[in-house]
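HUMAN: You are asked to prepare a plain-text protein record giving the amino acid sequence and the C-alpha cells, both parts labelled.

ASSISTANT:
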Amino acid sequence: MDTMTHYMGLLVANQPWNLIMFMAIPVILAETLAITELMILFSKNLTGTARKVNRVAGILAGFYFLGVFIYLWGNAVVPVTAGRQWRGIADVIAVGFYLSGVIPLMGISLLEIGAIARKRDPIGKLKLHATFVGIFLVVAHVAMIFGMMNPAVLGYAGTGM
C-alpha cells in the first residue's frame, strides 16, 4: 500500500524539479508577500521598496499559481479522480487545499493589476490584500499538514476512492 498522499508524492517525484516548481517557488513568493505585508502594515509606507516588492510578488504569485493549478488539474486531479485512485480523505484534503490556494493568490494578483476593488481607498486595498495573504497561509498550511500525513491515519486501506 502507498502510505503517501499524492501531494507528497508529487513533491518527492522528479527531484528537485517538482519540489522547486510546486513548493519552493510558491512558498518563496508567499513568504515574500507575508514579510513585506508586515513591513507595510508596521511602517504604513504605501509607496516604499517593501510595497514595490510586495506588488511584484503579488502579481507573480497569482499568475504562477494559476499555471500550477491548471497543470495539476489536468495532469493529476482529473486522472486520479477518473481512476478512483485517491488515497483517502487526507489525500483529498491535501490536494484540495493546495489547489484552493489559487483563489487568494489570484485575488492578490487581480487586486495588484487593478481588476478588482478599484473603488477602495489605499487602506481598504491593504486590508483586502492582507486578508488574501492570511487566507493563503491558512489553506497552504492545511495542505501541508494533511499532505505529510500517512493516509492510513484517517482510515485509508489501499482501496482508493
In short: Helices lie at 6-12, 17-43, 49-82, 88-100, 102-112, 122-147.
